[in-house]
Design goal:
single chain, 204 residues, mainly alpha, 0% strand
Length: 204
């Protein structure tokens, strides 16, 4: 057997998982993870873009590092039950790093994000992506593809919502739907649209 075939198959699997994580298994619109920051920040495009890029970086990086920590540290020592603590520590460290970088190079964006930037530490979308990676027994390359795809999927969802909410800001909305109400209603419609991709690609 050609030794390049397993690696090529792994790259193909990573590509399939990457695309499916954006569309058919969007971590926000399919699993409804990360809704708190999604609803709270998606009222402006600029702020949503900054948070979305931060989520992409944190999710991709933590999936890679947590895969190494889990398979090279916890599994050999039979300490898999510590994975929640270890994953949260790694995520918190990366979020702190991102927070310092944004504060240093973009103080305006840092002020606009406010409390939602530290909340990435407890963003269930970040932890959910890492746990799905472990549960589905992804390889290292596939885990990176899944983390990147999940981050991009979350980014696209919040950017689409921010664009819609900016347009709705100048429209008349029934009083009962103003604020989070209309946001969740639109999120439900977006989720139905993404469900339409189901069956096109499935990354398991």
């Amino acid at each position: 057997m050609n030794p390049e075939q397993p690696f090529n198959a792994e790259l193909w699997q990573a590509l399939v998982v990457f695309v499916s994580a954006i569309f058919t298994q969007n971590i926000l619109l399919t699993y409804f993870l990360g809704l708190c920051s999604f609803v709270g920040v998606s009222n402006q495009l600029k702020t949503s873009m900054g948070l979305g890029f931060a989520v992409i970086f944190v999710m991709t990086s933590t999936c890679a590092i947590n895969w190494v920590a889990y398979h090279w540290l916890l599994v050999p020592m039979h300490l898999e039950f510590f994975r929640f603590i270890l994953f949260i520590i790694i995520i918190a460290a990366f979020v702190q790093f991102i927070e310092m970088v944004i504060d240093r190079y973009s103080p305006v964006l840092y002020q606009n994000l406010g409390v939602f930037l530290p909340l990435i530490t407890v963003n269930c979308a970040i932890l959910g992506a890492v746990l799905f990676m472990v549960i589905r027994n992804y390889t290292f390359i596939t885990s990176i593809g899944y983390g990147l795809g999940s981050g991009i999927g979350w980014f696209l969802a919040i950017m689409a919502m921010a664009g819609i909410r900016e347009r709705l800001a100048v429209d008349r909305i029934p009083k009962g739907l103003q604020g989070p109400g209309i946001t969740l209603f639109i999120a439900g419609l977006m989720a139905l649209a993404f469900i339409g991709f189901t069956g096109v690609l499935q990354g398991r």
